[in-house]
Amino acid sequence: MLKASLITDKHFKIGKVDPRIYGSFIEHLGRAVYEGIYQPESPFADKRGFRKDTLELVKEIGVPIIRYPGGNFVSAYNWEDSVGPVSERPRRTELAWQVIESNEFGLNEFTDWLKLADSSAMMAVNLGTRGIDAARNVLEYCNFKGGTYYSDLRKKHGYENPHNIKVWCLGNEMDGPWQIGHKSADEYGHLAWETGKAMKALDPDIELVVCGSSGLMMPTFGDWEATVLDYCYDTIDYVSLHTYYNNHADDSADFLANSVGMNDFIKSVVATCDFVKGKKHSKKQINLSFDEWNVWYHSNEADSKLEKWTHAPHQLEDVYNMEDALLVGSMLITLINNCDRVRIACLAQLVNVIAPIMTSDTGAWRQTIFYPYMHASNYGRGTVLKTIVDSPVYDSKNYCNVPYVDSAAVWNEETDDITIFAVNKSFDEDIEFSCDLRQFGNISVNEHIVVAHDDLKAVNTEAEPYNVKPVYSDKDKCDGGICTMILPKQSWNVIKISRNH
Ligand code: AHR
């Protein structure tokens, strides 16, 4: 059996987790909105048309913030189309995904739905085809108390109180040539600065996210962030990062090593933010919003054959397998271990579209990636501890010295529990994982949850929704503050440890 170890100390803190790192994303894309969260004709719908089965699973995860309405969708979107009487809302051609948008569900429906989901909004404005004016108007509609054109329009639409949306994204992936209204770093940096200035003049309490790169491999990566931040540093609060991994090459060892790439991406963007901070002699720190991350590739071929200009097609409907759950687990661990700078992160997306939750006419079910996401959100709140992990390593096609064990330790000071998240990336060996927590005194393992499957390609489907599911392990021992756990081969683990008083 392979062996790995972890040592930590309650005084060695990375920082407090901002719960918003367990955020998600709902775009007007495929069946995310229509059939995902809203489907009046479904037997699962409430009287507003919101799917109750989806809401239950969203609440099971505990999603503190949800980005909306895009994504690529936002870059040619008129927010005004989505408010007011539904019968008067226009049907539009939607250019990003070449479908028809009916606008039956819009901004106010989303804020109503969020209340039922116990979540909050992260709203994106259109800086593709539009600019400062549309951005300040939608902000006035959402956040201004009343007595002005747009705030009174909101009241006329039945919303007396402002929505008070705190976090706003200044466009989406503006570095990407695929984006409607794609811009150079100088063009975007200037527009984002001016838009942010107008928005904060209207509501100084909001937080702004400026677009960073759409991926680490973008040709403009690095220069883009430095140029954009040079314009916007004083106005914005976060810079965004996006990343999606795939296993088209069917090289699982290399696929699972991608969390190393994600960590490098975060560290590089932090370095760029701090470079601009130094250059400007600023006292302000810019933090990171990793507002799109996931695995995305299973649906690529099916999507290339989709008929265009339909409403809510089955688009980006990746069916996730066991190895995807392992990488999602490792990506969550990476976000947790970078919680001092990553303050917001959004698993893209939430329902039906590259999502942990799927729906059909017969109900809703949990994909494999649901479990690590739900566990991290449920048990990963508190203070992240610095750990020293000694793990055997491997080399893959694109990465060197990849640890077989990825792990993070979160101390919840309120309950005084420590949760250790760990992924074992070995395909053929269990790992004996010994955790030295002597600083915490007399401790014991309360619960060890394992998600594992012999077949890395195992999936959950409508017909077989519990093929991959959590089980409990009882093989762990604690002695004198050192706990020894068995991490089964190719597994996601949540180990809850309590102090015995
Ligand atoms: O999440 C799917 C798409 O991926 C988003 O619309 C876009 O921002 C990214 O390219």
What would you say this structure looks like, in words?
- The chain has 501 residues and is an alpha/beta fold.
- The chain folds into 2 domains: 2-11 and 384-499, Immunoglobulin-like, CATH 2.60.40.1180; 18-379, Glycosidases (TIM Barrel, Alpha-Beta Barrel).
- Helices cover 25% and strands 28% of the residues.
- It contains 11 helices and 24 strands.
- The protein has helices at residues 52-61, 107-116, 132-143, 149-156, 185-202, 223-232, 252-256, 258-279, 300-304, 322-337, 370-379, and strands at 2-16, 23-25, 65-68, 92-94, 99-101, 120-125, 167-170, 207-210, 238-245, 287-295, 342-348, 357-360, 363-366, 383-390, 393-394, 402-403, 405-412, 417-424, 431-436, 443-452, 471-472, 477-479, 482-487, 491-499.
- A 10-stranded mixed β-sheet has the order 21-20-24-18-17-14-1-19-23-22, covered by helices on one side.
- A hairpin with a 4-residue loop joins β17 (405-412) and β18 (417-424).
- α3 (132-143) packs across α4 (149-156), α6 (223-232) crosses α8 (258-279) and α10 packs parallel to α11 (370-379).
- It binds alpha-L-arabinofuranose (AHR).
- Alpha-L-arabinofuranose is lined by residues 27, 70-72, 172-173, 292, 348-349.
